[in-house]
């Protein structure tokens, strides 16, 4: 019906009028007769409905002749809701239908009604699925119904996306005259067969939707009870015998001492200790042990568990019941409301020194609801709170009298003690034949006490046979759901998972595409989430910001472990604990969210439905033969991880629904047939990173929806000329290694890059290799946020014009969105032209100089008015006190790396109020520097500094007793000192310098980690980490 309306209302009928007007032109008379006959035949064909009705065929309205495709798709994307894997694709599907109702295609007769009807059905089912997924242990019929609905929703969305693609192709064509009309008509006739096929699919989907709706009634799913009483999985931690614990003495004694200490005898405020960490690390056990050790110092003690859904009135009553009080005080307690309970508990504690454990707090709101029951009564009372959420822990311990303690996993020694003690009764009784497999099991446990105890309990009831233990090791993931010995661990991990919002569950499950111990980069993960459609704009926040917030939230909730914490306190990457990975693999297989293949993962056979996302961790001929018999046309993402036999992978043309294609580190990618890549019309993320590829497939320029193209660590020196047609591309990453180091060469900037107005991140381009026109066009990229460039002209006048045009482009970008600028000069190419950069780049947050060139002076634009600059890495010929004064006034500077080749004077003292926010300071003495340097810190200098790296010239420092002033850095936790000296400096002087620095660090109240190295001798004097180990 909609196809008929599309052709007749907006197409052929209007063209009949064109032919009538053209009849007055005698030159067209012979051709016009044939055209009229052809038109009548077309009209007769399209006036016959293909199917009736077509609820989704509204997508084929020819409105795209009047609206560009981009605007149409953006309207749909804005309305797409974030979806949980357990909800299938109902969220985004309902969102797409909502977007269609707002577009012109819905104005056609009958179309709006059909879309609204379909949306209503799916919205109701969406609500039902959300309701059912709150069940802790869903009924098998509920799981079956959700599975049917999920697969149906996937299929409906696939059909909608095909419609959008066909409309978009037509919408890209410009309006033309009379002949253009017939060219368009011919194109439509060529695709009529595929349109009929899609229409047939829609009719089948409508029938399936009706069947799914009827099954819900047949199963009587609405009659299923939703309340479950479960045993608290933390109970065992409360009554464990002290003799059975390992690795807890140190933390217990440290925290107990802190709880009892009173630095200022005149102030006896209440202290709050928050213990935070991953589920199963032993937070409750540690809190209980501290409680046992110090409870004799308090008038009254109590322990209460909050749980995910706190009942404040019950919590208050539990606390009151554990307090010494007269019988009359609690009369009528059952009739007290919440406020009465809080008031009475506060009254009861007002004149007592109390010790209270509040276990398992899940939210800041829960803490806020109960904290006012604990009075500030000047009796040195103490509260211990445990939580899995870092934000909650900070809220509990907020203030000068609080402390947040982050739980750490058991080390290898303590893990083995706990493991063997549970199985054999002694840590020395493990047979030699089981030691290797034991190490593998403990590696998977990752120092998680609960996991070690649970698996040890399982093995204690099995034969002491190597094959049996190997079988348990291989099946740990599946055993989580099936073996009662692992119920406790499964419940603890599932508590954290079930507490996540649907969108966070989706983002977490997505991590199982990566193998064990894989370091998952934040930027890569965020871009993939967006490409998959998991992320929507929220309350004025863009998708990038929303996705990064999800990443940090998973860290704060202890679902993943942070890796590479940066100067701003944010993690650059994360890892998934092996036991959590087993859980999310199990959940993912159950929801048919991701299918895993290779390296022992054989979940292809376990899924219920078509493959939707595929992670290939290894491929050989056997796996290739399995994939050859699978329907791969519905796969939305394909990740191939470091496969050496990629030639066996099925051809790309079979993966027609891909949004994400990631070949990172596939060194043998050149063996794979890339033909058909242009057919991946929905592809948004494409990575060839680390593949040794030297030339891009030519047809990549037809991937018009591509948003990220990652070519880092490849041998690609030049991009196809038509790459500029990828107007939606946001991230174009070429030869950047790690975060800031560009390899030799760089990539040529394509001419016409100024047309790629959506570009936000560019890395690895070589200015000198590029044309002057391309360099100039950089200034047109008004959306650019990160620009990483290479400049290697060696200062030759031949390239002076390139430098001038680059400066002009940078000046244009100053007033736009540029936040990060990195310029690498591998051959000491001068970049003093940057001194003329203007106006002030007010949005700039990061500026990095790479290479061996040293600026003659601090650039004029580096002034305190640059209020957004947080990271500065700069090389200066001379380090002078005036430059340090200016840098010290930068209001937002968090990290400063300053390299110099000479110094104004040997001794520099940082004094007064400066560097108010600086957390990391690195002072680097150039290899060719002949000047001595001795830097000291006076009171008030760098008050927030946490990490310090600096050189110390031993012979100069000797005159001042090798004093650095580390005690004036109250937040210092990491110091690295490089001893420099003249050739004739004695070993005794250098040893005395090292001893003095070590003494100064040891007397610091933070006991910072300390590393001292001798630059001339090339060896290390001291490392506090090695001493601890």
UniProtKB/TrEMBL annotation:
InterPro entries: Apaf_helical (IPR042197), Disease_R_plants (IPR044974), LRR_dom_sf (IPR032675), LRR_R13L4/SHOC2-like (IPR055414), NB-ARC (IPR002182), P-loop_NTPase (IPR027417), RX-like_CC (IPR038005), Rx_N (IPR041118). Residues 195-222 form a coiled coil. The keyword Repeat applies. Residues 268-425 form the NB-ARC domain. Keywords: Coiled coil, Leucine-rich repeat, Nucleotide-binding, Plant defense, Repeat. One of its GO terms (molecular function) is ADP binding. One of its GO terms (biological process) is innate immune response-activating signaling pathway. Gene3D superfamilies: 1.20.5.4130, Helical domain of apoptotic protease-activating factors (1.10.8.430), P-loop containing nucleotide triphosphate hydrolases (3.40.50.300), Ribonuclease Inhibitor (3.80.10.10), Winged helix-like DNA-binding domain superfamily/Winged helix DNA-binding domain (1.10.10.10). Residues 634-1010 form the Disease resistance R13L4/SHOC-2-like LRR domain. Residues 89-175 form the Disease resistance N-terminal domain. Residues 513-584 form the Disease resistance protein winged helix domain. It comes from the Eukaryota. Belongs to the disease resistance NB-LRR family. This is AAA+ ATPase domain-containing protein.
């Amino acid at each position: 019906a909609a196809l008929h309306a599309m052709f007749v209302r907006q197409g052929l009928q209007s063209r009949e009028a064109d032919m009538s007007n053209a009849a007055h032109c005698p030159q067209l008379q012979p051709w016009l007769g044939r055209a009229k006959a052809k038109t009548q035949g077309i009209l007769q064909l399209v006036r016959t409905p293909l199917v009736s009705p077509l609820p989704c065929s509204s997508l084929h309205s020819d409105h795209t002749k009047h609206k560009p495709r981009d605007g149409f798709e953006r309207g749909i994307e804005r309305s797409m809701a974030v979806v949980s894997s357990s909800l299938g694709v109902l969220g985004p599907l309902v969102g797409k239908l909502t977007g269609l109702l707002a577009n012109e295609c819905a104005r056609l007769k009958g179309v709006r009604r059909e879309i609204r009807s379909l949306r209503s059905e799916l919205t109701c089912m969406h609500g039902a699925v959300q309701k059912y997924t709150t069940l802790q242990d869903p009924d098998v019929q509920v799981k079956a119904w959700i599975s049917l609905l999920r697969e149906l929703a996937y299929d409906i969305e696939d059909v909608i996306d095909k419609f959008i693609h066909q409309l978009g192709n037509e919408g890209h064509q410009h309006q033309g005259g009379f002949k253009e009309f017939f060219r368009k008509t011919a194109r439509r006739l060529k695709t009529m067969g595929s349109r009929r096929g899609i229409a047939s699919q829609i009719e089948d989907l409508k029938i399936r939707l009706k069947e799914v709706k009827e099954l819900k009634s047949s199963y009587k799913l609405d009659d299923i009870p939703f309340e479950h009483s479960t045993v608290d999985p933390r109970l065992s931690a409360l009554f464990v015998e002290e003799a059975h614990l390992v690795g807890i003495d140190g933390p217990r004694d440290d925290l107990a001492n802190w709880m009892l200490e009173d630095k200022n005898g005149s102030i006896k405020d209440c202290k709050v200790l928050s213990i935070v960490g991953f589920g199963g690390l032993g937070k409750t056990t540690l809190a209980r042990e501290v409680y046992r050790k110090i409870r004799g110092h308090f008038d009254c003690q109590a322990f209460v568990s909050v749980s995910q859904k706190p009942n404040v009135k019950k919590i208050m009553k539990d606390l009151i019941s554990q307090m010494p009080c007269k019988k009359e005080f609690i009369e009528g307690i059952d009739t007290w409301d919440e406020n009465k309970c809080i008031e009475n508990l506060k009254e009861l504690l007002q004149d007592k020194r109390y010790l209270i454990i509040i276990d398992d707090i899940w939210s800041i709101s829960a803490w806020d609801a109960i904290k006012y029951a604990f009075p500030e009564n000047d009796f040195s009372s103490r509260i211990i709170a445990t939580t899995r959420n870092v934000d909650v822990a900070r809220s509990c311990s907020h203030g000068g009298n609080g402390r947040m303690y982050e739980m750490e996993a058991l080390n290898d020694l303590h893990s083995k003690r706990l493991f063997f003690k549970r199985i054999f009764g002694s840590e020395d009784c493990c047979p030699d034949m089981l030691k290797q497999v034991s190490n593998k099991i403990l590696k998977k446990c990752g120092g998680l006490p609960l996991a070690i105890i649970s698996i040890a309990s399982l093995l204690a009831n099995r034969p002491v046979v190597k094959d049996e233990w190997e079988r348990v090791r291989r099946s740990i993931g599946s055993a989580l759901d099936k073996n009662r010995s692992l119920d406790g661990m499964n419940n603890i991990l599932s508590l954290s998972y079930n507490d996540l919002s649907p969108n966070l569950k989706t983002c977490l499950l997505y991590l199982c595409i990566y193998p064990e111990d894989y370091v998952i980069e934040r930027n890569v993960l965020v871009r993939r989430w967006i490409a998959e459609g998991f992320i929507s704009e929220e309350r004025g926040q863009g998708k990038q910001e929303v996705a990064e917030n999800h990443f940090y939230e998973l860290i704060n909730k202890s679902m993943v472990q942070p890796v590479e914490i940066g100067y701003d306190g944010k993690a650059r990457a994360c890892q998934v604990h092996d036991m959590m990975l087993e859980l999310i693999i199990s959940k993912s297989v159950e929801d048919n969210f991701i299918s895993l293949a290779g390296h022992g993962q054989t979940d292809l056979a376990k899924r219920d439905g078509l493959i939707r996302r595929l992670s290939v961790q290894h491929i050989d001929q056997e796996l290739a033969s399995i994939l050859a018999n699978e329907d791969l046309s519905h796969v939305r993402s394909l990740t191939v991880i470091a496969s050496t036999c990629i030639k066996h992978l099925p051809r790309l043309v079979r993966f027609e629904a891909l949004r994400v294609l990631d070949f990172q580190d596939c060194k043998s990618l050149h063996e794979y047939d890339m033909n058909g890549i242009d057919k991946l019309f929905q592809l948004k993320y494409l990575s060839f990173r680390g593949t040794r590829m030297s030339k891009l497939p030519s047809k990549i320029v037809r991937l018009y929806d591509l948003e990220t193209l990652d070519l880092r660590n490849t041998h690609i020196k030049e991009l196809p000329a038509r790459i500029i047609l990828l107007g939606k591309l946001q991230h174009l990453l070429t030869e950047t290694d790690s975060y800031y180091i560009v390899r030799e060469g760089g990539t040529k900037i394509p001419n016409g890059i100024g047309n790629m107005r959506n570009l936000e991140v560019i890395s690895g381009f070589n200015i000198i290799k590029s044309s002057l026109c391309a360099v100039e066009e950089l200034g047109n990229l008004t959306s650019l946020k990160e620009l990483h460039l290479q400049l290697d002209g060696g200062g030759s006048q031949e390239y002076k014009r390139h430098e001038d045009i680059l400066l002009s482009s940078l000046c244009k970008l100053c007033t736009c969105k540029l936040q990060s600028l990195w310029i690498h000069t591998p051959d000491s190419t001068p970049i003093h032209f940057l001194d003329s950069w203007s106006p002030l780049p007010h949005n700039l947050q990061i500026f990095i100089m790479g290479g061996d060139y040293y600026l003659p002076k601090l650039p004029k634009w580096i002034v305190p008015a640059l209020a957004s600059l947080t990271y500065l890495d700069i090389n200066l010929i001379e380090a002078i006190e005036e430059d340090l004064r200016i840098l010290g006034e930068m209001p937002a500077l968090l990290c400063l790396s300053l390299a110099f080749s000479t110094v104004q004077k040997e001794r520099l003292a940082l004094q007064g109020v400066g560097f108010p926010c600086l957390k990391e300071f690195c002072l680097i003495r150039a290899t060719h520097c002949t000047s001595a340097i001795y830097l000291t810190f006076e009171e008030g200098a760098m008050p927030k500094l946490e990490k310090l790296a600096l050189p110390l010239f031993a012979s100069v420092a000797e005159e001042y007793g090798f004093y650095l002033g580390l005690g004036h850095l109250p937040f210092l936790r990491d110091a690295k000192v490089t001893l420099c000296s003249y050739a004739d400096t004695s070993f005794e002087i250098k040893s005395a310098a090292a001893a003095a620095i070590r003494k100064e660090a040891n007397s610091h109240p933070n006991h910072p980690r300390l590393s001292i190295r001798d630059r001339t001798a090339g060896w290390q004097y001291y490392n506090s980490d090695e001493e601890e180990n």
